[in-house]
Structure formats: C-alpha cells, structure tokens
Write the structure tokens for this entry.
Amino acid sequence: MPNEKGILFVISGPSGVGKGTLRKELFKRIEGLTYSVSCTTRQPRAGEQDGVDYKFINLETFMSYVEENKFLEWAKVHGNYYGTLESDVRKLLDEGHDVVLEIDVQGALQVKNKMPEAILVFIMPPSEEELVRRLDRRGTESDRELEERIRNAKREILESKRYDFIVVNDDLESAVKELEQIFKDVKTKKPENNRC
Ligand code: ADP
Ligand code: 5GP
C-alpha cells in the first residue's frame, strides 16, 4: 500500500462532450487511478449498474446526506441531483490512490474551493454543432433534455477559465493522449503541491 496521499483529479465539461469516453480510455492507459462513484437521484439508464456507474439513491436519502454535510460537492444538474461523498474521496486519497471525479462544472468549482490542491481539467467540445451531434448520436435524452443540456453547455464553457487545464475533445485519440500527459506531468513534476 503506498504511504503518500493521492492526487485528486476532476474531469468536467458539458454533457455529451466525451468525459465518460475519455475517462474510460484514460483508465486503460494509466495504472492506479481510482474512480469515485457519485450518488444520483436520476433513474438508471439501460445497462447502468448500481454502485458501478452511480449509487442510485432517492431524493429523500440525497437530501439527508446534504443535511448531514456528507457531500464534498453536490449539484442539481439537468433536473436531477448528483453528489460526491466526501468520506469516499478522503478514504481513497488517504490510502494513497489518485482519485478521478467526473462531475459537472458547479461541482468542480465547489471541490476547488474546499480542496485547492485538486487538479481541474475542463473537456471542451470542438464546436457547439459537434456537441449537439454527439448528444444526438448517444440518444439518451429527449429533445427537451437535449436543449437544456446545450443551454447549460454555454454557461459551463464560460467557467472553463477557472480550470487548471483545458482539453479540446476533437479527435478522440489526441484528446486521450493530451489528458494522459497532463496526469503524468502533474504526478511527476508537482507531486508535493498537489497531494490532498
Ligand atoms: P459525457 O460523458 O461528457 O456526457 P460521453 O462520453 O457519453 O459524454 O460521449 C457522448 C457521445 O460522444 C458518445 O456517443 C461518445 O461515443 C461520443 N464521443 C466522445 N468523444 C468523441 C470524439 N472525440 N469524437 C466523436 N465522438 C465522440
Ligand atoms: P449523466 O446523467 O449524463 O450521467 O450526468 C449528467 C451530468 O452530471 C454530467 O455532466 C456529469 O458529469 C454530472 N455528474 C455526475 N456525477 C456528478 C457528481 O457527483 N457531482 C456533480 N456535481 N455532477 C455530477
């Protein structure tokens, strides 16, 4: 078991930009990363597993966690609630694991406030048109939900200047490589500054 504390990486950006796709690719290429599974009140999509993709909880339970201050961050995103349990993250970091959160912009900025040493990476779409195409192709949202996600994307992109790094996800392979390099650089070049 490693005895140094781990580094907290936060990947965020608009819905449909490719965060999940990039994160999964990154995990294949970098050893020792741990994904912190979020809580959500949204319904599972086909194929999603409780405890793997999300911890699916009801609104009452979610709000009791808010009351008890259990979340490192939480937010209402596209009509559902999402949150990261602080105890999960702290435990993993204390055990020396590098932890990755894949969360929305409101949540990422809350993490930066509470843990300034966290590394925030914003995944940027190459264009609005491409973002719409990707959401359309994924086919998991209704037209109304899709419109809301595009509206939110415009607001989220304005916050990208508050991030440590911005990666444009145009060509997938190039974006994965860039992300991989950022993670490796942070680990090798600034290990002391970014221990949580
Ligand atoms: P997010 O997790 O940000 O909501 P996803 O990872 O689900 O986004 O990606 C949304 C859709 O875009 C998926 O169908 C995915 O296969 C596709 N996608 C992701 N990255 C790229 C890319 N670089 N080029 C083309 N399509 C992509
Ligand atoms: P989806 O419902 O498509 O899985 O996720 C919708 C949005 O919620 C995405 O932008 C995703 O990154 C974000 N999200 C997932 N988990 C969390 C979380 O724990 N906290 C916050 N703030 N956002 C989250």
